[in-house]
Structures are given as structure tokens and as C-alpha cells.
Amino acid sequence: MTTPLIFIDGDQGTTGLQIHQRLHERADLQLVTLAAPYRKDPQRRADAINACDIAILCLPDDAARDAVASISNPAVRVIDASSAHRIHPDWTYGFAQMSPQQAQHIASARRVSNPGCYPTGAVGLLRPLLEAGLLPRDYPVSIHAVSGYSGGGRVAVEQYEGETASQASAFQLYGLGLMHKHVPEIQLHSGLAQRPMFVPAYGAFRQGIVLSIPLELRLLAPGTDAMRIQTCLEQHYADADHVQVMSMGDAKQLLALDPQMLNGTDDMKLMVFENGNQLLLAAVFDNLGKGAAGAAVQNLDLMLAMV
């Protein structure tokens, strides 16, 4: 069997660079990128993408759409790390642990859209509860998340690590227009009937995410309590790679959540906290690991098994 040819389009950004670093020494594939003078040459890019087995797009949304439009070879398969196709009905959502069948769907797909970093945590917490009927689909969901500044791409990295780094904010809330591009993705793939309230922020650390969702027991399905929520998540992820549910006993011992606790891994840890009639769901993971490059490589390995 010939060695699969993998083309990374956009290997200089935060996600593309990490994917390249993870793949460049692997003997089971042949990695192709474009030299600097040709990265914006449409013909060179079209030639490269049509010659590969699997293309990984690490591009702005419009450029990702252009890259896909340039594909004339029907054998080419694509993993798109941008947000261009995450709610497109013809693309498979690349969150392998989202359902028991999702890994197989990804393995056989021609077009896979890598999840956004924030949606990975939000969908990971919400979807099992919605599918089990514990959380009403019209629940007024609020999501708060703090990411390392690398989530803002090269511009944010330069802001925090460049010459003006001393002037960078220690913490900044953004998306104040409540129109963050991840909201439709979260709503669709979690199964919510209406838009969630999503409030993202950046902190003065390079990578890592802590995401939390408060719940009121009085608004949940009758008979739902913290243990039923915990058991639902544990059962959903019992056989899942890279997603773990912390026991409630261990969660009770925590006094704080460090968004950097899983940096350098491709794992995500989910937690349930309780106080009377109030619950807090939380997820911690590396925005460049499970939230980006790690998920892309996981999806690539699933797809390579079908080459």
C-alpha cells in the first residue's frame, strides 16, 4: 500500500504549526506543505490539494472555502480546521466522542470539519444531557469560557508575546455583541432549540481553556439531580478516548480550576459541581490540543484507517 500523502494548507498559523510538528516525523504518511513564495499562489495550492490523499486546511474561513472549491479530484478527502463548514449539512462534524457512531462517521467521511475550541467543551457537556432528556432543549443556556490568548491566532500571540506585550491586558471579555461565530455551531451540535448565551474571554496565558455552564435544577426535567447529570456524562464517555469525567468526590475537593491543567495533552476533563438547587458544569482542555490540532490529528488517524 502506498504511503498516504497529507497536505497541510496553512502550516504557519497556530493550529497548522502544531499539526505540522505532530506529523512531520511520522513514517506512516508523507507530509506536503507549500514553500513560502507559493503559499498564496492559487494554482500551486490547487495542484497540491488535488494531488494529495487528505488535505488539512488551517486557513481563514474564506480561504478554506476557496481551497475546497478548487478540488477537482474526487478522491481527495479534507479536514477543515476553520469554521467555514462546521454547520454545513454535507460535512461531518469532527468531534469523535460526540456520539458512539461519530468516530465511524469521521473515518468514512470525505469532508470533515474540525470542531471549534469552545464548542468542543460546550457540546461535550450539553449533548449527552439533551439526548438523555435531562436538560430541556429550550433551556436558557449560558456559557462562559476563558481561553489562552493563542486562541486568537497569530495576531493575539503577537499582542502578548511581541514588542508591546507589557501593554497586553491580563484579562479581556470579548464577543460583547453576542454574535460569536461559535454560537450556531454550539446550538446545532449540542441539540439546543435556541441560541445559547455565550460569553468568551482571553487570559494572559498562552493556551488552555476552562468553560463553565450554570444550571438550575428547578428548570430541568423532573427528578433530575446532580447525580443523574454525573451518571449521564460518565455513561456517555465510559469508552471514549481523550474525554474523562471527574468523579464528584474529586470535584468536591477542588477549590479552583486551572485552565492550563491539561496543556500539552489531547484530553478533555468534564466536571459537575453542586450546591443545593444549583449545578455548575465545567470542562478543561488545551485549546491547541483537544480544541484544535489534537482533534485534527485524531480525525486524520480515523480517516487514514480507511485509506
Walkthrough of the structure:
The protein has 307 residues and is an alpha/beta fold. The protein folds into two domains: 124 residues, NAD(P)-binding Rossmann-like Domain (Rossmann fold); 171 residues, Dihydrodipicolinate Reductase, domain 2. 33% of the residues lie in helices and 21% in strands. It has a seven-stranded mixed sheet with strand order 8-9-7-10-13-12-11. A six-stranded parallel sheet has the order 2-1-3-4-6-5, with helices on both faces. Strand 5, helix 4 and strand 6 form a beta-alpha-beta unit. Helix 5 packs parallel to helix 7. It is globular, with a radius of gyration of 20 Å. The mean pLDDT is 95.
Key phrases:
Dihydrodipicolinate Reductase, domain 2, 10 helices, alpha/beta, single chain, 307 residues, Rossmann fold, 2 domains, 7-stranded mixed beta sheet, 33% helix
Please give a quick description of this structure.
This protein is of the alpha/beta class and 307 residues long.
Order of helices and strands: EHEHEHEEHEHEHEHEEHEHEEH
Strand proportion = 15-25%
Rg on CA atoms, Å: 20 Å
CATH level-4 homologous superfamily of the largest domain:
Dihydrodipicolinate Reductase, domain 2
Q: Please, what is the average pLDDT?
A: 95
* Class derived from helix and strand content: alpha/beta
Helix content: 25-40%
Whole-Å distance between the termini? 9 Å
The CATH class name of the largest domain reads Alpha Beta
Q: Strand order of the main beta sheet, please?
A: 8-9-7-10-13-12-11
**Helical segment count:** 10
Shape: globular
Major beta sheet summary? 7 strands, mixed
Per DSSP E runs of 2 or more residues, the count of β-strands stands at 13
Query: What ranges have pLDDT less than 50 throughout 5 or more consecutive residues?
Result: none
Main location: cytoplasm
Family: Belongs to the NAGSA dehydrogenase family. Type 2 subfamily.
Protein name: N-acetyl-gamma-glutamyl-phosphate reductase
Subcellular location: Cytoplasm
